[in-house]
Amino acid sequence: MKRLLVCLLAVLVLGGGVAQAMVHANLAEQSLAQHDPEALMWRQLLATQGNVRVQYHLGVIYANGQGVPQDYYEALRWFRMAAAQGNTLAQYNLGVMYANGQGVPRDYAAAAQWFHLAAAKRNARAQYSLGVMYANGQGVTQNFEEAVKWQLLAATQGVARAQFNLGVLYNNGQGVPQSYQEAMKWYSLAAAQGFARAQFNLGQMYEEGRGVPQDYLAAAKWFRLAAVQGYAEAQNNLGRLYAEGRGVTQDYVRACMWFNLAAAKGVSAAQRNRDEAAKRMTPPQIAEAQRMARNCELRDYKNCDERDTVTEPGSVTPQQRSN
């Protein structure tokens, strides 16, 4: 099901990447069947009589084009009616639409106002989004202390992106005293929910010994978890650990496979690493790494380490880690 995305940059990420907020539109059971004008008519009748839940659902239906042509203007109309009655999901979605410029000119100040209304009523997505806006100074004066406040409220409700952003804020000492230990805590919570950027950052922290004793085995574990989700920088770093034999058995074919995958996504360090590794490998080994990379993509990054037996080449000094 198609969903709306807030176009908000998150706070600076250790190792790159941004986090985005998502519209609350997981209402498949509320969607209309195609060509069901009678159901739509009854919904509109209830909504015009003040039924706030139906007003909100109509906003979702029109925003996502569920059984009706997608119409942001109609979505805004129904969301505004529901928001005026205090519906926090409608208030949050209005913030999303103002931030995206969907049906209205993009207006971060208006977005922040709607997010604030919903956030004050404990809407976790709105708290996260408002924290992002304070971190970036979008629609509000940049204020890292406020960013920490709202990210923390969302993070304690289990929002992985907020947990991740708290890790970034503690890592950078923005709005809080700098603490790698606290950064590790919040990255770990987000990573446990499968958030690839947090997994990648944990890998870097373990590899470099920041906030934890240096542990290449743990670094490889977290890079792998992010890599199998298609996170290109993690694929490059996992390839580098294979090339160096740190935390994993040294294996240049597997290293080159991960370099190939990351290079295909435009990671320049992976391109250099792949080219350097290729100088030390035989043609059959290079071909095997390419085959493994192709198969890995076809399997959606599952069981990527399956390979034929090849002779290991000599040592190679890969490009420094990606940042």
Structure description:
The chain is mostly helical and 323 residues long. It has helices at residues 37-48, 52-64, 72-84, 88-100, 108-119, 124-136, 144-155, 160-172, 180-192, 196-208, 216-227, 232-244, 252-264, 268-279, 283-298. It is globular. The two termini are 34 Å apart.
Topology diagram in text:
Elements: H1 37-48, H2 52-64, H3 72-84, H4 88-100, H5 108-119, H6 124-136, H7 144-155, H8 160-172, H9 180-192, H10 196-208, H11 216-227, H12 232-244, H13 252-264, H14 268-279, H15 283-298
Helix pairs in contact: 1-2, 2-3, 3-4, 4-5, 5-6, 6-7, 7-8, 8-9, 9-10, 10-11, 11-12, 12-13, 12-14, 13-14, 13-15
Could you write a compact summary of the structure shown?
By secondary structure, the protein is mainly α. Helices cover 60% and strands 0% of the residues.
Beta fraction? under 5%
Euclidean distance between termini CA atoms: 34 Å
Instruction: Compute the average pLDDT.
Output: 86
User: Number of helix segments?
Assistant: 15
- Radius of gyration, taken over Cα atoms and rounded to an integer in Å: 23 Å
Shape, please?
globular
The ordered H/E elements are HHHHHHHHHHHHHHH
Question: Helix fraction?
Answer: 55-70%
